[in-house]
Specification:
Length: 264
């Protein structure tokens, strides 16, 4: 099984071209189609944002041109909404339901919660979300993959959502960070056996819990191991504390240095 239908968020940000390049790279590897989606929202009594629309149209044209050069099937559509209480995240989530994976860019911590799209997508779309850092270049994605693994719902979902990429990887490492009390459990044997049924050979690593945060440990291993993709489950505290992500996923989103595939 491969990704066949990639949803790519298009906007007028300076990071959009990097996101386009990543989407086309993944599409070439997977034999997938890229569907660019741009969203323009404005209040009912507000004038249309012509300049923003022009920039979004330019992003769509850039995607189409690059897709032709890369021989990747591609389409673009734009949603314009003046509906009260309906933001870009809600419209992106609806689009994500009809795709295999969604590709967006890392957001600035200064983005207002009501304007953010990454966290709502991860938590509520039901689809894996590939987040591209706003800094750096990524000539390869998915050759060397680090998977944050534990015996839990979110990690299992992320691992299986990432299988199309993992099958093509040169190296897959499952990293478990466990306390001394947990370290006696055989985290790696069962999951290695399971992945073997998918003809996928994976390494397992067990790291002790230290004074560093879990996110710091993951980011350090990504850097030290030369990984070009991090796969992880994203925990959400639940309705009592809003729809945002937990501390580990939140820190990863702020400090990521390579693309991250997240699932909830």
């Amino acid at each position: 099984m491969s990704f066949k239908d990639i949803l790519l968020y298009l906007d007028d940000s300076p990071h959009c071209e990097r996101r386009i390049d990543v989407a086309l790279s993944v599409a070439q590897a997977q034999g997938a189609r890229v569907n660019g989606l741009s969203i323009v929202t404005h209040g009912y009594y507000q004038p249309r944002y012509l300049r923003a629309e022009e920039k979004v149209a330019a992003a769509a044209a850039l995607l189409m041109a690059k897709a032709r050069n890369a021989a990747v099937p591609c389409g673009c559509r734009r949603i314009e909404s003046s509906a009260v209480g309906v933001g870009k995240s809600e419209l992106m989530i609806k689009g994500a339901h009809c795709s295999d994976v969604v590709i967006v860019s890392q957001e600035s911590p200064r983005v207002a919660r009501t304007a953010a799209i990454v966290e709502p997508l991860v938590v509520r779309s039901g689809r894996p979300v590939l987040i591209v850092p706003v800094a750096g270049s990524f000539p390869t994605i998915g050759r060397r993959v680090l998977v944050a693994w534990k015996n839990g719902r979110e990690a299992a979902r992320a691992l299986h959502d990432a299988l199309p990429i993992l099958r093509q990887a040169e190296q897959v490492t499952l990293l478990t960070i466990a306390s001394e009390e947990e370290s006696h459990q055989h985290y790696g044997e069962n999951i290695r056996e399971h992945l073997g049924q998918h003809t996928l050979q994976a390494r397992t690593e067990l790291f002790p819990v230290t004074s560093a945060t879990l996110a710091d440990t993951l980011l350090n291993r990504v850097s030290e191991g030369g990984y070009d993709l991090l796969v992880m489950g994203a925990y959400s505290p639940g309705a009592r504390r809003g729809s945002g992500l937990g501390q580990v996923a939140g820190q990863i989103l702020r400090e990521m240095t390579v693309p991250v595939l997240m699932s909830h």
